[in-house]
Amino acid sequence: MKPTIPSLPISKIANELDEKSWLEVRCMSSACRSGSVIKGEWILYLATTSEDDGVYKTPVVISRTHETKTIRTVPGLASLAIRLGINFPEIPLCDGDTGIWKRVAGSSSPEQHSGATEWRHNSP
Could you tell me if 100 and 85 are in contact, meaning their C-beta atoms sit under 8 angstroms apart? Predict the structure, then answer.
């Protein structure tokens, strides 16, 4: 049985983000909490869509060393694609893949881990 994925109002949050905003991703899986998995660097994709529907991807490499990760974003995002080892079909993904983080340290293949994920942000 797949974990329940909380709803995230992506469009509302993306429209409010600026250079001082952050979005926190916290994995709640027991393996993550124990620190036994998910070591290395992961790629976060921030997508900005132009008027002609062209999508531009900005890969941001972050280090995954703790169960809670603060992600700093950039202004003017029309869509926001965040992958944390789990599928989020309600999030508009910028590259049309399955919506999972791609590990770039230690392995070139995508990985998944189980567990609910909590999201929060500091936009008013």
Answer: yes
Q: How many C-beta atoms surround the C-beta of residue 88 within 10 A?
A: 21
**97 HSE (CA, 13 A, CB side):** 13
Dist CA 23 CA 41 (whole Å): 18
Strand, coil or helix: 53: coil
Tell me whether strands 117-121 and 55-64 are parallel, antiparallel or unpaired.
unpaired
The separation between CA 69 and the C-alpha centre of its own chain, rounded to angstroms, equals 10
> 10-residue block means of pLDDT along the chain (124 residues)?
36 43 41 37 34 37 36 32 32 31 30 34 37
Taking the alpha carbons of 105, 110, 111, 117 in that order, is the dihedral positive or negative? positive
What is the CA angle 14-20-23, rounded to 5? Answer: 50
Q: pTM (2 decimals)?
A: 0.24
